[in-house]
Design goal:
Largest sheet: none
Shape: rod-shaped
Number of helices: 4
Order of helices and strands: HHHH
Number of domains: 2
Strand content: under 5%
Oligomer: single chain
Length: 168
């Protein structure tokens, strides 16, 4: 689209530099035609630039009409303001993305060292913490003092210091 408009603007400039035929009463076209052609080309260039900035601002999530009209009416100054704004906004976004990624990268995976389920002290079958009796043999799994689950080989309950039987 911009290429087509640029070609039209150049053709407009070339035609107008040879003569300003629609201006009544002016026949010295060497002095009048070239400035009008240049002004027409400049205006078309301003329009193209304003549309481009407006579309770009809209894609970036900003108000495209505001930025397009600002660049159209203020020319290079508006374009510089827009470019500074885009650069500043992009730096803020990249910092936010890096900050969001940093905690995720700092978290290390947790490795489970002891994933073995407790065993029944009577039969050696697997039981889970909180079971009151072994599902395989029916033996009591809790401490007689506090009721917490005990494991095979323990001599004393670690929670209430009750001595456990010799069979456990």
């Amino acid at each position: 689209m911009a290429i087509v408009l640029a070609i039209v603007a150049i053709a407009f400039f070339v035609v107008n530099s040879r003569g300003c035929y629609w201006t009544p009463g002016i026949h010295d076209t060497r002095l009048i035609g070239a400035p009008w052609g240049f002004l027409g080309f400049s205006g078309l260039l301003q329009l193209i630039l304003g549309v481009w900035v407006g579309v770009d601002a809209q894609k970036r999530g900003s108000n495209g009409y505001f930025w397009g009209l600002l660049v159209f009416f203020t020319s290079i100054i508006g374009l510089l303001v827009y470019l500074l704004w885009v650069t500043d906004a992009m730096e803020k976004i990249s910092k936010e993305v890096q900050q969001a990624k940093a905690p995720a990268a700092a978290v290390e995976p947790v490795t489970v060292v002891d994933a073995v389920l407790p065993e029944c002290p009577a039969c050696g079958g697997e039981v889970e913490d909180g079971f009151k009796a072994c599902p395989a043999c029916g033996a009591a799994l809790g401490c007689s003092g506090c009721g917490k689950t005990i494991r095979k080989g323990w001599k004393v309950c670690p929670w209430c210091t009750t001595r456990l039987g010799a069979g456990r």
